[in-house]
Queue: 2 jobs
Job 1
Amino acid sequence: MSKTNAAEIARQLLDGIASGRFPVGTLLPTEFELCEQFNASRYTIRAVLQELQDQGLVSRRKNVGTRVEASSPQARFRPTLASVDDLVQFGVEHSRHVQSVGTVKVKGDLAREIGCAEGTPLLRISSIRLEEGRADAPMAWTDIYIDPAYTDVGEMVRKSTELVSALIESRYGRQIAEIEQDVRASTLTDERVGKGLRLERGAAVLRISRRYLDATGEAFEFSVTVHRADSFSLSMRLKRSTR
């Protein structure tokens, strides 16, 4: 059988989704199965699935597969940085060095931002991200706040390279469904962070706060990451999906 090109593979999968052969909520065949079916390379199949994802037709998740989300393309503008997996990629590509783990009482602006009562005790995990192999190049400081009931996660994070959210998921089955993110320019005020990032108080930084929500919409993790101004950039393209 001759190799089928990407456009033809995409057309056949689109027809299958539109006709109901692959109903919404079901999984498409695996990458391996599609490679065999169309006598195509894994690179070609992944490019086709990415195109379907860009159109809002499917979602892809590691160890789960490619799930059909809609029967027709969604006409909308959307950034290429579109999934939870994309968003946490920074955490995979840079080494984490835990600085401290302990319970703190959250107050003031931080309590309001997290959405908890003044003085609420939360477990705080503080860490520095470094460029791989560059102990002299701190990129970011992150404070993660979780329920003190997850104390064992605080211990696990010292011995694991997995993200805190992944540890919570594997230990307690609580999975990220959505992340709310706020990115803004700021100035450094926390001496802990300044010491870790080798910055003076008042230095320009980029502050990213994230609320991690489960399928019920309840937040179970909150993080504040401070980046050196010279270590972070955000680039994206907006694509329009046509019906």
Job 2
Amino acid sequence: MRNKYIQIYKDIVDDITKATYQPQTLLPSEHELMDKYGTSRETIRKALTLLAQNGFIQKVQGKGSIVLDTPRFDFPISGLVSFKELANQLGENHKTIVEKLELLPPTEDMKGILQIDSSEEMVWEVQRVREIDDEKIILDKDYIKSSKVEKLSREVCASSIYEYIEGELGLTISFAKKEITVEEPTKEDRNLLDLEGFSNVVVVKNYVYLEDASIFQYTESRHRPDKFRFVDFARRTKN
């Protein structure tokens, strides 16, 4: 089967996420995985390499593959992924509530952020609340240039804007600059999120660019601080 190693990778990730394989324990051996999935050693090794590259295991020569600690609510710092793409890691009970979708003239601040020169350029303003396990714990505030995304619907916003941009519009989202700060909740934060007892929110600001290096989106993701760890996985390579 073509790309069978990807399916094996996803299956093992699911087992790690569900704690079928506990942190600091060994995965089954290559031979055991070959028997389990009915495939070749090469396919298993490709799956294990992908697991190592993404921080799920550490391969130790002569010992095997050690499962690393990957808590369910870890959010990667270096990745550029949508909430929908992360949803499988956040449990089954999650949903997106679209609070606002408007096409508006940009403010002076937003003109600077999105590098807008034209007086005719409009900006999509989207506010989405992310609810996990019946608690409203993320407020995403997106500002998107209408010259790059002419049409946007509430259905798209409730599903995945990135999926729409890449799949329907054929644009390539390339990279982002990120800033992380801790701030006092605004009145808007307290109205839209379940923040009783919390005196701050963690704000991740994303400046997102297309493959031609043009900025098209600015996002503020405002998180309740008790639910997330913002992590990165760094692997040293020798020169």
